[in-house]
Amino acid sequence: MSAKLIKGTEIREQILEEITAEVAKIKEDHGKVPGLVTILVGENPASISYVTLKIKTAHRVGFNEIQDTQPIDISEDDLLALIDKYNKDDSINGILVQLPLPKHIDDKKILNAIDPDKDVDGFHPVNVGRLMIGGDEVKFPPCTPAGIQEMIVRAGVETSGAEVVVVGRSNIVGKPIANMMVQKGKGANSTVTIVHTRTKDLAAHCKRADILIVAAGVPELVKPEWIKPGACVIDVGVNRVGEKISEKTGKKVAVLRGDVDFEKAKEIAGYITPVPGGVGPMTITMLMLNTLKSLKFKLGIE
Ligand code: NAD
After folding, report:
1. pTM, full prediction
2. 187: left (phi over 0), alpha (psi -120 to 50) or beta
3. Chain segment 4-13, per-residue pLDDT in tens
């Protein structure tokens, strides 16, 4: 193996320790800790496990965390009223609504009702606009792209002047990470190309990339011969390709593959993220960082 592995699991531990220390200091200086509420509607098992992980992580770093579970038949108006209550609650700095919501609720209407200054997921149109403007305007970068950028920076990869190719143009990964990499500033200043399903020659674009960020959701879409020797490859894809029995727990678990042929790509790339254990652990970590930032903005110390 020639590539250096960029491990999200290790970077997560570093960042969570940094957040824990900062929370303790703010508590000492200002008598406040970040407050994060997660609103869950119904009992979808996948949503419960995501929310549980968010709440557990928030607890670990010393936040005041609330899990607010609502019945599956809650009306849209009642859910809007609940969000309004948390918007007005001074002890709450971050509001998360776990998706998907039941069909009778318009999720866009719900997400747009969150106060943009408590929208720690960074999906409110105001925060999307702030991200586009860049610089000091940015309050809450969306968590997965922010995690990707953080990994690139912490791995010591040069981004200024680098050719960045992003595979995928979704609103949660492709478009925001492309926008972040093209901005002025640390971990950015890159020349960015976005490729997608209508791109004519995907391979030719990927081959030019000094930093290749792949978020397509297609197992092993990126072939080893598409990778420029020494490039930094960030594999965002999480694809379930089967099941196996876990050696640790003896239970059935999903077999996950990324969007890159990891085994061969790691012989060519200079840096590469594994799946699992790469970008995955960064999303909740950056959510914690955004919630901490929200309190710091409020206290005027960010
Ligand atoms: P999406 O389906 O919304 O978007 C995929 C994008 O990839 C589309 O813009 C599409 O044009 C492009 N694409 C698909 N097939 C392609 C092909 N053959 N050639 C070129 N482009 C192609 O997906 P998403 O929400 O952006 O997620 C992408 C992947 O990243 C998924 O596997 C998802 O599970 C994973 N993901 C991981 C995390 C995390 O680890 N924390 C977070 C978000 C998404």
Report:
1. 0.97
2. left
3. 999 999 999 9
